[in-house]
Amino acid sequence: MSLALMLGRRGQGRTWPNPSVGCVIVRESRIIGRGRTADGGRPHAETEALNQAGAAARGATAYVALEPCAHHGQTPPCAEALIAAGVARVVAPMADSDPRVAGQGFALLQKAGIEVTTGVLANEAARDLDGFLMRTEHGRPHLTLKLASSFDGRIATATGQSQWITGPAARRHVHALRARHDAVMVGAGTARMDDPSLTVRDLGIAQQPVRVVVSRRLDLPMMSKLARSAKLAPLWLCHGPDADPSLVDAWQGIGATLIPCGLTGRQLDVRSVLQELGAQGLTRVFCEGGGGLAASLLAADLVDEMVGYTAGLAIGAEGLPAIGALGLSQLRDAPRFHLVESQTIAGDMMHRWVRA
Predict the structure, then answer these.
(1) Domains of the chain and CATH, by start
(2) For the chain, is the Cβ count within 10 Å smaller at the N or the C terminus?
(3) Is residue 23 a known part of a binding site?
(4) Catalytic residue, candidates 46, 48, 67, 276
(5) In sequence order, which ranges of the chain are alpha helices (DSSP H)?
(6) Is 164 annotated to bind ligand?
(7) Is residue 74 very low, low, confident or very high in pLDDT (cuts 50, 70, 90)?
(8) pTM value surpassing 0.85
(9) 44 annotated ligand-binding residue
(10) Is 233 annotated to bind ligand?
């Protein structure tokens, strides 16, 4: 099961809206087939592993990182494929929360006389599949908030200079995390100030994550790196209902996807933004700021995980804070997270926290 989970993790960021699942088929203590959900979401892991195992799958045990699907879509159900292959036992950590499956895959297997074992490494599987589960159960993707800051929590000087606070090794680590998410998201201020491309570079990655910019009025430079690459890598712009129609047409004309979202007061409603991204199929979103967007997501209790990169330099109080105003008066009201990992990356400190 550990191998099945590891295989599934290899596909993170490249299989949405489907979960990235791994499958290992074992017969007489020997692995005879393995597979993961293919890029784009199909074929599924079970199909890949069964094709590799061939006729040897009869009487074997299949370890699958999620309940085999039971519904007919673009391909037949994986539960039926396992039955047809003649496997004797299926081991899975948990049921699929997709209402089209939700225990029906296990029921099909058991009805066919196949032994089903569940609960194996369930906590690990739930962490790996958190984005898929979040979308099927709550309609929004898993959100990781990334902050790269000075020791005193600043992301830029008073003049706006921010490149580079952390070193090249830490930035390469960020690119690896981008690749494991379906989308990379920033606010309009960051898009204007930093002129980012938001792509994964220097890692041999062919399938780029979706670039998402949250901008109520679409007041973004049309000659930016994002605009110039809109037809090379997916670019989605989340905007308000009052955005200038001529700007909507202009961005659509260069290849961007426009996603209207609701407002809360005079700002875009971040809950609406994430619900719309979930409706588009995204399961894992990597938010890289800026401070205003980070504050809005934290205030709305939408941050599931935080990854910080802290450099050994101080910028001072006049610098731009990593997180904007939260309006807190009591510490008990502050969003709190648990530390799960920390490491030194060539002189910078990476620390990862999950929702308490």
Answers:
(1) 1-128 (3.40.140.10), 139-355 (3.40.430.10)
(2) C
(3) no
(4) 46
(5) 2-10, 45-53, 78-85, 104-111, 122-128, 130-138, 168-179, 188-194, 225-228, 245-253, 270-279, 291-299
(6) yes
(7) low
(8) yes
(9) yes
(10) no
